[in-house]
Amino acid sequence: MSVELLSDCGLEFDNQILTEICKILGIKKLRTSGYRPQTNACIERYHRVFNTMLAKVISQNQKDWWKMISYAVFAYNATCHSATNFTPFFLMTGRQVRWTVDMLLGDPGEYDRSVPEYAQEVREQLLSAYEVARKHLQAAATVAANWYDKRVRPQEFFTGDRVRLYCPRQFVGKSAKLQSNYSQTGEIVAKVNQSAYLVKTAKGSKIYHADKIKLLETYPM
């Protein structure tokens, strides 16, 4: 079974060291297209939820965020996920979170099994939970795909087309409201798949999603 590693284009993940590690371990390194967080939607959605949780518990000056990370992570892992109908903690460990009250009261049946019996029970619980989680994830993916297909507008470009590229980079001293997000231009080099193109710019070639590209219109003088 092949293993793939998907990351964004940040230099923390897209660098020579990680590339060589992936080669040694036989991992296929993938990266998202430019300004397309939907490519890595699972982790991006998690970041959005986690940042929202963290904003509720840090102080007003925001300097104690590092103290609250462990508590926010614990709360997230102990909450039932809408897509899997299980808590992340259970899918990782095979048991539910033990809260402070559980430690005080204890579990009457905690020591009724031997280690092999407990290990077999956890294994069976995880296999059953994984099967149910897969079905729920498939259903959630179908709903998301149908929702996306209703809004998407297919676009097709050809090799040699001059295009404008979405680049919402903000600059100090300039208002984002007055900035043109499609000021960068490039040329279509190749079609990667049905929704992505390799585009050559002044800074080099890069893959862009089709909805981040606009045809550069020219008008006769």
What would your notes on this structure say?
Helices cover 40% and strands 17% of the residues. It has 221 residues and is α+β, with helices and mostly antiparallel strands. Among the domains are: 78-152, no CATH class; 162-215, SH3 type barrels (Roll), CATH 2.30.30. The strands form two sheets. The protein has a five-stranded antiparallel beta sheet with strand order 6-5-4-3-7, with no helix packed on it. It has a two-stranded parallel sheet with strand order 1-2. The chain is elongated. The model has no long low-confidence stretch (mean pLDDT 89).
Which structural class do the helices and strands define?
alpha+beta
| Poorly predicted segments | none
Shape: elongated
- The tally of beta strands, per DSSP, is 7
By oligomeric state, this entry counts as single chain
Order of helices and strands: EHEHHHHHEEEEE
Strand fraction: 15-25%
Total number of helices: 6
Lateral strand order in the biggest sheet: 6-5-4-3-7
Q: Major sheet: size, sense and barrel closure?
A: 5 strands, antiparallel
| Rg, nearest Å | 24 Å
- The helix content is 40-55%
End-to-end separation = 58 Å
- Mean pLDDT level: 89
